[in-house]
Amino acid sequence: MDTILSAVLSELSTRSIHFFISKISKPVPLDVEDCLRRVLLRAQVIMDEAMGRHITNQAMLLQLIVLRDAMHRGYYMLDTFRYQHHDEEETKDEDLANCMFGRQMEAQLVINFLLHTDRHEGEDLGLLPIVGPGQVGKTTLVAHVCKNERVRGHFSKILFFYIHNFTNDEVSNFEKACATEHQNHMSNSNIDRGLLVVVELIGDFNEDAWNRIYRASKQYMPTGSKIIVTSRSDKIVKFGTTQALTLKYLSHESYWYFFKTLTFGSTDPKMHPRLTRLAMLISKMLNSSLIAGNITACVLSDNFDVHFWGKVLTFFRGYFQRHVSRFGEHPIDLLCQNKPAHIARMTIPSEEFMVQRQNECSLEEEVPQITFKDVMFGSVKPHEKFEVLTWKARIPPYYSRVYTCEIQKLKTTASKRKRSTKNGSTLC
C-alpha cells in the first residue's frame, strides 16, 4: 500500500512541477512561484523517503528518476527567476567529495541486480553492463554501489579489474587472477557466498578477448557470483544477462543543482544573489562535466568574492570561445572523449598547456602532487612535460585520474609586431 501511495504522490508531484514550470516560464506572479516552491518541497520529501527504503520495484524506481529530473528542472527555474534581475550587476562586475549526486535511483537498480537470486537463471553468470560516454560517472556509481553494506555482506569478496586495450597480457592476467581467487575461495569459510567482479573496459571493445574473460569468470567464479562491466562502447550490451543501464550526462538543470551544492556547501545561495547568478552562468559553460564541476566549484568556494567569480566567468568565456574557434570543439568535450585538448591558464595568459593523455591509476600507483587546479588557476611553474592529478576518489577502489601534459608558450602580439617590422615596415 505504501508503494502504491508513493507512486501516486510521485506522479501527482511530477505533473504539478511540469505545470508550474510552464507557468513560471512566462511573467510570474508571486503566488505561482510559491506554489511551485511548495510542490518542490513535497517532491523532495518523497525523494528523501525513497532514499531511506530498499525499493525493488523497477517501475517505481524509473518513476522516481522522472520525479528527480522534474524536481531539478523546477529548482532551476526558481533560481533563474529569482536571480535574473542581477544580470546588469553581473555585467559590471566582469570589467562535498564523498557524496554521489543524482544517481541514487540508478544505484538502487544496480543493487537490486546484485542481491537478486534467480533459481532458474541456468548456467549463465549474471552480468550487468553499464554504458555511457566518458566521465559520465560510471566508475563512481559502481564504487558507491560496492560501498553499500548489503552488497558487501552478500558477496565474500569484490574484485576490480581494468582492461585498457584487451592485450593478451591483460586477458591472461585476468584468467590467472580468477584461478587464484577460485583456489582461495575453496579454502574460505565463506564458500557459500559468491564473488562480485567489476570490470572496467577502457579501450576499444574486442569481442574475442571479452569471450575469454567471460569464460574464465564462468569457469572459476563460485555459484552466486555476479559481474558488472562498465564501458563507453554499446557493444558490451548484448552480452548482458539483464537489461543494460545506460548513463547520460546530467541535464543542465540537474547539473546546476549539483554545481550549486558543491560551490555553496552549507552557505545559503539566497544570501548571495550576485554570486549565485555568476555561478549559474559559469555552470552553463562546463557542459555537464562532473570533473570540471568539481574543480571549478573548489576554485570558487575558496574565494567567495564577486569580483573574483566575475573574473573566472570572463576567463572561461574567452577561453572556450577561442578554443572552439581554433579547434572546432569545446575542450571539455574533447577531454570527455579522451582526446588531446589545449587548456588556458588564468593567472599566466601567455601560457597554455595541452593534455596529451589520460590515465587511471590504482591505489598502489604513485600519483603526482601537482593538481589540474594548480596549473589552470594557480601560478605553479611545471616542467615542459609534466603530469597532473585531476581526480582522486575517496571511496574504494580509490582510483585516480592523471593527465599527461605539456606547457606551450603562446605567440604574443609584441612578437608578431616585431616580426612584421623586420623588413622595415610596420603593420598596424
Structure description:
By secondary structure, the protein is of the alpha/beta class. It has three domains: 1-95, no CATH class; 104-246, 3-Layer(aba) Sandwich (Rossmann fold), CATH 3.40.50.300; 340-414, no CATH class. It contains 16 helices and nine strands. It has helices at residues 2-24, 30-51, 58-83, 87-94, 104-115, 138-147, 149-154, 168-186, 207-220, 252-264, 273-284, 290-301, 306-327, 331-336, 372-377, 413-420, and strands at residues 126-131, 157-163, 195-201, 226-231, 245-246, 341-344, 351-361, 385-392, 400-409. It has a five-stranded parallel sheet with strand order 2-3-4-1-5, with helices on both faces. Strand 8 (385-392) and strand 9 form a beta hairpin. Helix 8 packs parallel to helix 9. The longest helix has 26 residues, at 58-83. It is globular and about 65 Å long. Mean pLDDT is 81; it is low at 1-5, 85-98 and 413-428. Residues 121-264 form the NB-ARC domain. This is NB-ARC domain-containing protein. Pfam families: NB-ARC.
